[in-house]
TrEMBL record:
Native source species: Bradyrhizobium macuxiense
GO MF annotations, alphabetized: precorrin-2 C20-methyltransferase activity
NCBIfam families from the UniProt entry: cobI_cbiL, PRK05990.1
One example of a Gene Ontology biological process annotation: methylation
InterPro entries the UniProt entry points to: 4pyrrol_Mease, 4pyrrol_Methylase_sf, 4pyrrole_Mease_sub1, 4pyrrole_Mease_sub2, CobI/CbiL, CobI/CbiL/CobIJ_dom
UniProt protein name: Precorrin-2 C20-methyltransferase
Length: 243
């Protein structure tokens, strides 16, 4: 009886993988990883040169990424069928062998593997290896504390409605905005409405060789790469003295 090991790889720089993840990846005989059709996939790039020469690979190609709006029912149907099919295939493989599933960042933090994890519960043994989340690599790239003292930190999805983004941006001290891409203009407008735009940073491909760190107000781009995060640092609110 085998098992499925989901291996968190960290934010992108292979040097930021955990010792445990490195050991598991190097010893793996069967490796599955997500990727966009026709591309190697970021998780696979991270482990380039680490896999055994005789490893068997199982690329899991998304049927759709940005071609259809994420709130389109067809988008949900295609991805549900995709995850159903791969959960079934991995479950069959794990009856005989260990399969290592690669995941950028930390699998439990918005990781694609969680869609498989939910479908595989009770069917096969699963182990999840923690990884440094991508946002941690990004705020380290800026070189400033993201939050301190009593700061409240919010992690927001750029896919949220603009009004909700602005409201949450006003009510938090430190901000992390994920799922940027084509949502960048909306995120910019929400930050401006909340009075936070001048403090916002855009970090593209954090910790990777082509990393870019820039103030969001200083660029005019209408979108950004998939691996990009917007950050607003907290200022360290002080507790009010008790009466």
């Amino acid at each position: 009886m085998g098992r499925i090991i989901c291996c968190g790889l960290g934010p992108g720089d292979p040097d930021l993988m955990s010792v445990r993840a490195d050991r598991i990846v190097r010893a793996a005989k069967h490796v599955a990883h997500f990727r966009k059709k026709g591309q190697p996939g970021q998780a696979r790039r991270i482990v380039e040169g680490l896999l055994a020469a005789d490893v068997s690979e199982y690329p899991m190609e998304y049927p759709v990424t940005t071609e259809i709006a994420f709130d389109n029912p067809e988008y949900a149907r295609l991805l549900a069928d995709f995850y159903d099919a791969w959960a079934e295939r991995l479950a069959r493989l794990a009856r005989e062998i260990d399969v290592v599933v690669l995941c950028e960042g930390d699998p439990y933090f918005y990781g694609s593997f969680m869609h498989l994890y939910a479908r595989l519960q009770g069917r096969v043994e699963i182990e999840v290896i923690a990884g440094i989340p991508g946002m941690v690599g990004c705020w380290n790239a800026v070189g400033q504390p993201i939050a301190l003292a009593d700061d409240v930190t919010s992690v927001l999805m750029g896919t949220l409605p603009e009004a909700e983004l602005a409201q949450r941006m006003r009510s938090s001290d430190a901000l992390v905005v994920m799922k940027t891409g084509r949502n960048l203009p909306k995120i910019r407008r929400a930050l401006a409405s909340a009075g936070r735009l001048d403090d916002a940073w855009l970090v593209e491909r954090g910790t990777m060789p082509d990393q870019r760190v820039i103030k969001l107000a200083d660029i005019a781009e209408a979108d950004c790469p998939y691996f990009a995060i917007v950050l607003v640092h907290g200022q360290g609110r002080r507790r009010e003295a008790a009466p």
